[in-house]
Design brief:
The chain has 449 residues and is α/β, with parallel strands linked by helices. The chain contains 20 helices and 15 strands.
């Protein structure tokens, strides 16, 4: 049974707040901030989105939250598309940040004046689906002018947009978590970049030292650890949530192992939280932290600030299993658009993630190519050879996962964060923390059903 529109609107607000905190990464901070003046256009823009009688230009409205160089790239490519497709005109509407985008979508949904397409996380799309607002793209993908070689889109991104038998989006700006390492500190400690949890612990111990009159801590954890905890539990060999049954599964031997591992490093002083620094890219580029796990989309920011250190990224260290979370938005299409606008939007969506464009997007912004042919292209291989920090992220595709999509996703994460913070900052025991996390997370899911 469909939820009421009020519940949908509330879900949008809550889930967007979680996305704005996403593991403290640059992807969710620097790419989402600013742009109050980006656009005051909202629901009015969607009035012009559809084509009228046969032969008229199909007008497609795309709401997005890309800023700075990301928006510049998007504008250039959209101009190119419009020039080459005289019967389609795509109008970009920058809504500032993801939070701004959320609020505009709420207003548009209430007024039944949604744009043709918009950026959206998988959790958002779940709520759109429950309220019958999003278009199933599968008939278009399989149709006469469909998506040539849809299987070329990497599996982890196809799964993020697949809901039962329906395909409700195409991937756009995607990133993963990688381990940033200070090669200078590794060398001084006499260790190599860690490949396992045990090696990570050992490297952190040896890298924690006094250097030039200040303390260097080996490993750093972002403040928003609740948005990464599924990664640690899956690496420990455990299960996070049963998406189909909407049931929490992390209160397990593996879940306890993950919490004890993190808690142990914090207690012995070989790891620290970001704390007042807010994001670990600062302490890392200052040489105060030897290693930290962050978004691959943050590579460009580290490159800009790390002037005096030799650094790189490496794949996430392995526990019992290899597991790398993939994050970022998709582009979804709303049912309220007319057929001509939908067809035009589909052509544009395909264009944005063509082999050529997804490669160029990744090179320009630091996000990841979403197609296998792009990863295998000479252009991308040459780029990675010249910029080796980008190699780690794409090496994790085979072990990638998208976090389970459940009702009340934000409330669930808030509940986990509240209990996890008691362990991180108030000395609560891992076992007690895990039990409380399970209880409160399941309660949040059940209340949102």
């Amino acid at each position: 049974m469909k939820k009421s529109l009020l519940l949908l609107l509330l879900s949008f607000v809550l889930i967007l707040a979680a996305c704005n905190q996403q593991s403290g990464s640059e992807e969710s901070s620097k790419n989402e901030e600013k742009s109050e003046s980006a656009s005051s256009e909202s629901t009015e823009e969607s009035k012009d989105e559809t084509a009228g009688d046969s032969g008229e230009k199909a007008e497609v409205t795309f709401w997005h939250a890309m800023n700075d160089d990301h928006e510049k790239w998007l504008k250039e490519k959209t101009d190119e598309f419009n020039k080459d497709n005289e019967n389609i005109e795509v109008k970009l509407v920058n809504q500032g940040s993801y939070d701004d985008l959320s609020k505009k979508l709420l207003a548009a949904g209430k007024a039944k004046k949604l744009p043709t397409i918009s950026q959206a996380y998988g959790e958002w799309i779940l709520n759109y689906k429950d309220n019958d607002l999003v278009e199933d793209l599968k008939p278009m993908i399989d149709g006469e002018n469909g998506f040539e070689n849809y299987e070329d889109i990497n599996k982890v991104f196809r799964e993020d947009n697949t809901f039962g038998e329906e395909v409700l989006g195409l991937p756009f700006n995607k990133s993963t978590r990688v381990l940033f390492v200070n090669n200078d500190l590794l060398k001084e400690a006499g260790v190599e970049a860690p490949k396992t949890w045990e090696e990570l612990k050992t490297a952190a111990e040896k890298m924690t030292t006094e250097k030039d009159g200040k303390k260097v801590v080996g490993m750093g954890f972002e403040n928003g650890l609740a948005h990464e905890i599924s990664m640690w539990i899956k690496q420990a060999g455990g299960e996070f949530i049963d998406e189909e049954k909407q049931q929490v599964k992390f209160n397990s031997e593996e879940g306890l192992k993950a919490l004890e591992y993190i808690d142990g490093m914090l207690n012995d002083g070989t790891a620290r939280m970001a704390g007042e620094d807010e994001y670990l890219s600062g302490p890392f580029t200052n040489g105060d932290v030897g290693m930290y796990i962050g978004s691959s989309a943050g590579i460009a920011y580290v490159q800009k600030d790390a002037k005096d250190i030799d650094w790189t990224t490496v794949p996430l260290p392995k526990g019992e299993e290899e597991a790398a979370p993939f994050q970022g938005t998709n582009i979804t299409m709303f049912k309220t658009a007319e057929d001509a606008a939908k067809q035009g939007a589909f052509e544009y969506m395909k264009f944005l993630i063509s082999e050529e464009n997804t490669t160029d997007w990744a090179k320009t912004t630091g996000y990841l190519p979403v197609r296998t042919t792009a990863l295998e292209s000479d252009e991308w291989k040459k780029f990675v050879e010249e910029n080796p920090a980008h190699k780690a992220g794409v090496s994790q595709y085979d072990n990638g996962f998208i976090e389970e999509r459940v009702p009340g996703a934000f409330a669930m994460k808030e509940a986990i964060a509240k209990e996890l913070d008691k362990m991180l900052f108030e000395d609560a025991e891992p076992k007690e923390t895990l039990e409380n996390m399970e209880k409160e997370a399941q309660k949040a899911i059940d209340e949102a059903k």
